[in-house]
Amino acid sequence: MTKSDQTEVDASVADTGRRKFLNTATVAGLAGAGLSIGLAGCNKAAEAPATAAKPAAAAAPVASAGHAKGEVAPGQLDDYYTISSGGHSGEVRIYGAPSGRTLKRIPVFNPDPLSGWGMTNESKAILGTRPDGSPKYTTGDTHHVHGSYADGTYDGKYFWTNDKLNNRLARIRGDYLECDKITDIPNVQGFHGMFPDKRDPVDAAINHTTRVFCGSEFHVPQPNKPNDWKNPKAYATLMTCVDAETMAVRWQVRLDGNMDLCATSYDGKLAACNSYNTENGLVLNDMMSSERDACVFFNIERIEAAVKAGKVFYIGDSKVPVVDGTKAGNADPKTALICYVPVPKNPHGVNITPDGKYYACSGKLSPTATVIQHDLVLKWFNGELKTERETVVAEPEIGLGPLHTGFDGRGNAYTTLFLDSQIVKWNIDAAIAHFKGDKNAKVVLDRIDVHYQPGHGYTSMGETKEADGKYFNSGNKFSKDRFLPVGPVHVETEQLIDISGDKMVLLHDHTAYPEPHDAIIVRRDRLKPKQVYTMSDSPIAVQSDKVGVTRNGKKVTVRMVSIAPVFSPIEFVVKKGDEVTVILTNHDTVEDLHHGFGIENHNVCMIVGPQETKSITFNVDRPGVFWFYCTHFCHALHLEMRGRMIVEA
Ligand code: K7E
Ligand code: CUA
Ligand code: CA
Q1: Fewest beta carbons less than 10 Å away: which of 185, 230, 572, 577?
Q2: What are the pLDDT digits (tens) for 348-361?
C-alpha cells in the first residue's frame, strides 16, 4: 500500500458512518491491495441490511411507548454505567443501568484471547513477566471497583480494582476503559478492601484523588519467613497507600487485627477499614473468639507526617516505609495514627454517607449496623473523647447477616442481608434518635426479598456526594431457580431495585457470570470514553511506508498495517526456529472498526482498534504455510482479509 492510497482512504472515511464506510473503503482498500474485483455485488451486500432493519426501527416507538420503569427501549441508551468487579474471573465488567445490558468485559488480571490481553507485548509489560517472557500470573480475584474523584464525585479519569489472589492493584484508564497499570503490594496477602481518597487531608487545593488505600485481610509473618510460621506474634497485616498517578507504593501501616473493606472520608482526613480478626487469629475459632472487633480509622495527615519525619521501619528487603499502627504504639489519641472503634463481632463492610457525616459498618454475625460519626472520630484524635466507642451514634438491629450498605442521598441506608436474603431500608437520623433513647423512632422503613443471599448492594452515584437515590443494585450470590438451568455452575442474579419512592420496587433481574462482588453505578455524563485511539500514543506505530520484515539473528520483526479489508504485507517468510514479533497498526479511522490478527496453529490472537498498535511475539518451530486472518468482523470482505506466514525449514 502506498502513502497516497492511505491518504485517499483516510479522506474517504473521514466523518462517515460505518455503512458509508463499507461502500467506500472497499474501493480504496482493494485498490490499495492491487486487487480488482467487480464491486457492484459488494455494495449491494452492504446495503441489504439497511432495508432489512427498517421494520424493526419502525416498531421501536411502539415498544417504548409501553415501556416499564427501568426498561430501556431498543435504540435507547442507558442512564448509567455499572462498573463491576468480576471476582475470580480476574476481570472488570461494565453493564448499562437500568437495562443490565453487558457493555464490556475489561481483561485485567486474566488472559483474554479476544483482545490479546496477556499475549501482546504491551499487556505483558503491564502485567509483568517471568524470565521466559510469560506473564507472572494468569489469575486474579477482583472484588472492588472504585473511581477517581474530583470535588466529591467521579471525574471519570481512573478506576481501580484489587486482586485478592496475587495482591495487586490495577488501574483502568477512564478514556479507553482499559487497564494501564498494575502494582504489586508488598508484605501482604489477601488484599481485599480498596478505596481512593477524595481529596488531600491538608492541601485544600488538591480536591481530587491522589491516593488509593488498600487493606489486607490475611496475616503473614513479617518478614515472610517460614521458620516463624508457628509463632502467631510474628504475623501481621498492613494497610497500604498507593500513589494514584504513579501507582508507586507510598507507605504502609503495620496493624493489630486485619483490614477487610475500606472507605474514605469526603474531607480527605480519614480512611476506614472494618476488622473482623482483631484477635490476630490464624484459625477460625480464634478469629471468632472476641465479642467485639473493630472499625479502624487512619489519620492520613499524621501517618504522612510520621513517614516524612522518618519514624518508619522496613520489612525484609522491601523499600516501602512502614509506620507503627499497633494499639501499643498508639496509646495517646492526641498523637495516635490509628483509632480502633469497637463494633460487634466479625463485621463486614464499611460505607460512608454521601454527606460525609457517617460511616455504616455492617455486623455480619451481629444483626446490626454500627453508625460512626465522622467528626467524632476527629474529636477522638484531638483527645476530646474518653473512649473510641463514643464515636458510635447508632447501632440499629436491621436483620440477619448485614454485609454492605448503599445510600440514597436522602438520609436512608440500604443494607444487604445475606442470611435473610433481603435488602433493608433504614433511616440514619431515626437510628441515631433511637440510640439516644427515642423508642418511637421508626428506624426500619422497608424490606424487600432478593434472590438470593446478597453480597454487595450499591446505589446510583451512591459513593459520591451526587447520590441520586434512583436505583439500588443487589448483587446476589446464589441464583438457584431464577434462570434456566445450565449445569452445576450457576450464573449470579443481579437485581435492580427502584428506590425513588417510599417502597422499594424490584424492576428486573439480569445475570452476571460468576462472580461479581462490588460495583459502582456511574452517571453516564461522568465518563467520556474515546472510541478511536491516537496513533501517536504508540512509540512503535507502523506507518504505511515502513511495512515489511527485518531480521536480527533469529529475531524477526514484521511491521504490518491493516486497513479494511487488507493487511499489508499479505505474506512474510521466516525460518524454523525464529522468534517472530508482529507489530500491527490499524490505519482505519472509523469508530468500531477493529481488526483481529490470528495465526493458524500458533496460539496468536489479538485485536487492534482504529489507529491502535499492538505487538505480539511468538516462536515458529514447524515449517509450512500458515494463514493469518482477521478474527474480528470488520467488512463485507472480512473473510477474505487474510495472508500467509511461510515458515521455511
Ligand atoms: Cu463483601 Cu470481597 Cu466486598 Cu464479596 S466482599 S460480597
Ligand atoms: Cu478486518 Cu475482519
Ligand atoms: Ca473476630
Answers
A1: 230
A2: 999 999 999 999 99
